[in-house]
Each structure stands twice: as structure tokens, then as C-alpha cells.
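Lecture notes, part 5. Sequence design as translation. It can be helpful to think of inverse folding as translation between two languages: the language of shapes and the language of residues. The source text, in C-alpha cells, appears below.
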């Protein structure tokens, strides 16, 4: 199965050019699954400490419009995150779009940082804490959205539920790429799943400076199968999900968790 990760610009002009290039790459590679970064289709809301309802709603509308464009990546399954309003709550929600279908919400971000450039706890409401595995046409998928990657017990819990693909959409800054790759390697080993991550990349007029460095990491030893970069913002890797299935019966996955 061919999986594609990427880094995308977070400004309108740069995003449009990057999107066209991504579509061409996915078609040329005949990708089966494409992971997009965390809420990529609107300027990063949490850059400002002061949330504004009108900005949130505009971000929701912008992502609504881009959901229609996910068809351009068909026949790949597409996953990512987007802002939604649910029951009066503002949420950062992961979604999966099967080829030819509508995006289905799969998880809401639970762990929210609150610091310069990433005032997420100020902007969003905490998700419901459900870290379920989603069965799809491309395998069993779980999400750890950005900061959630550092709460490792969820990766361990996913291993017990036959996860094959652990998706980590991010919006992380420079110069922290090495730290995040280390977290992705650990999550892959602990979950026994291929860990995929896509990130925002480059600088923006609002002062954002994102690290890029998407990855594909294998589950047995945490080996990095490839990284994106500014020069190569798209990465496609051919993986075998049976490797994730076999990994569940080997160290350290088989070791029983203590009550």
C-alpha cells in the first residue's frame, strides 16, 4: 500500500501552489492514502492569544470549501484535521474521507497546549477523549493529533486494538523537528503500527515558522522510512500492513500492561 505524507504552506497563495503540486504527486505515485497536516486550509488560528468567533467561523467555512477539493486526491483515502462546531463546542476534529465519499469525523483533539503561537486551549474546546480505532478500506487507523503524540499511553492502548496506521497530523514550529521524529519513532514501536505524520511548513506573514518534516516510520524497530523537507515536501512510501499485524506479537508489544 502506498502512503503519502506532506508539508504544506499556511498562506493562501503558497497553499494553492503546494496543493496543485501535491495532487500531481499523488496521481503520479498512485497513492492509496494521503495524510494532510493539522487544520491546513486556513491561517493558523491559535497564533493569536485572543480568540474571535468570526475568525473561527471563517476557518470552518474555509475548511468546508476545501473538503470538496479532497476529491482531487482520489482514489486515495484522505485524512487530516479541521475546525468544527459541535453542540456549541469549538473542536479540532480528525476526519477520514474514503474515495468518492464524504469526510467522516473520527476523533477530536483532547490535549491542548497554550503558549505563544499555539494558544489552542484558548481557542478550542477539549475533545471527548475517545481514541477509538477506525476500520477503513486502507486499514485500521488511529489518530494522535500533534500534542497528543506525547501522551504515550494512547499509542499503547491502540496496540491492543489491532491498529495498523497511526496518523499524526501536526502544526509544529522550528527548530523542534528532531524531537518530534523521536516521538513518532516511539509511538510506532509502542503501538506496533506504521506512524505517519504531515506538518505545516515554512514561514507566514503572521509570524508562523513551521518545521515541516513529515514522516513515515515502521513499527518493528521504529525505523524512519523517509522524511519530507523544504526541497522535497511530499513523500510516498510503499508499506506492508502485515508488518504491523506481526509486530503486535513481538517485543515490546506483547508485554502485558500492569493494572
Amino acid at each position: 500500500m502506498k502512503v503519502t505524507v506532506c508539508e504544506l504552506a499556511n498562506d493562501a497563495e503558497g497553499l494553492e501552489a503546494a496543493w496543485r503540486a501535491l495532487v500531481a504527486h499523488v496521481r503520479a505515485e498512485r497513492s492509496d492514502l494521503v495524510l494532510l497536516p493539522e487544520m491546513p486550509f486556513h491561517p493558523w488560528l491559535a497564533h493569536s492569544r485572543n480568540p474571535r468567533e468570526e475568525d473561527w467561523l471563517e476557518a470552518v467555512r474555509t475548511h468546508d470549501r476545501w473538503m470538496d477539493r479532497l476529491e482531487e486526491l482520489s482514489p486515495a483515502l484522505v485524512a487530516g484535521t479541521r475546525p468544527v462546531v459541535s453542540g456549541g463546542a469549538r473542536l479540532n476534529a480528525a476526519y477520514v474521507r474514503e474515495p468518492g465519499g464524504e469526510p467522516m469525523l473520527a476523533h477530536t483533539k483532547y490535549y491542548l497546549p497554550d503558549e505563544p503561537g499555539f494558544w489552542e486551549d484558548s481557542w478550542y474546546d477539549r475533545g471527548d477523549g475517545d481514541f477509538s480505532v477506525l476500520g477503513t478500506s486502507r486499514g485500521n487507523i488511529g489518530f494522535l493529533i500533534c500534542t497528543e503524540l506525547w501522551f504515550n499511553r494512547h499509542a499503547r492502548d491502540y496496540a491492543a486494538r489491532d491498529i495498523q496506521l497511526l496518523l499524526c497530523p501536526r502544526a509544529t514550529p522550528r527548530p523542534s523537528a528532531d524531537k518530534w521524529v523521536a516521538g513518532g519513532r516511539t509511538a510506532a514501536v509502542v503501538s506496533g503500527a506504521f506512524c505517519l505524520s504531515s506538518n505545516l511548513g515554512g514561514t507566514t506573514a503572521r509570524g508562523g515558522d513551521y518545521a515541516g518534516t513529515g514522516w513515515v516510520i515502521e513499527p518493528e524497530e521504529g525505523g524512519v522510512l523517509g522524511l519530507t523537507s523544504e526541497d522535497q515536501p511530499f513523500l510516498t512510501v510503499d508499506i506492508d500492513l502485515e508488518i504491523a499485524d506481526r509486530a503486535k506479537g513481538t517485543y515490546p508489544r506483547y508485554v502485558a500492561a500492569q493494572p
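The translated text above is only one of many valid answers, since several sequences can fold into similar shapes. The chain has a mean pLDDT of 95.
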